[in-house]
Amino acid sequence: MSFVLPVTGPVATTAMVLAQQPGSGDNGGQGEDFGKSSPVGFLLLLIFLVAVAFLVRSMTKHLKRIPASFDGDASAKEGPPDKAEVSAGAAQAKIDSEAEAKAEAGNNGKNDQA
């Protein structure tokens, strides 16, 4: 039992007609050198390949530095913080304590008036 479409004959004929090259000598812009690469193109391709290799190498270095998880507990277990983190934390604590002192001074003045 075979199934044959009745329209395969006209479709195949149309495909053969469309696939033929024109006989007038016009080959559609595909001259003698069509599809051939120049040395400049080959050099450009090599430069792109080297650039991609360096980008992949850099990306793998950066990906190795990413921690396995981004939980807050994992960073505390790794070790002492850097000096920059300590100084930034100390500066933030100083700012917070000054803000609390100003807030308390403002609240004390309001309580005395009442």
Automatic annotation (TrEMBL):
Alphabetic keyword roster: Membrane, Transmembrane, Transmembrane helix
Taxonomic placement: Bacteria, Bacillati, Actinomycetota, Actinomycetes, Pseudonocardiales
Name of this protein: Preprotein translocase subunit SecG
Source superkingdom: Bacteria
Region annotated Disordered, chain positions: 67-114
Basic and acidic residues: compositionally biased ranges: 74-85
Residues that span the membrane, as ranges: 38-56
Compositionally biased intervals (Low complexity): 104-114
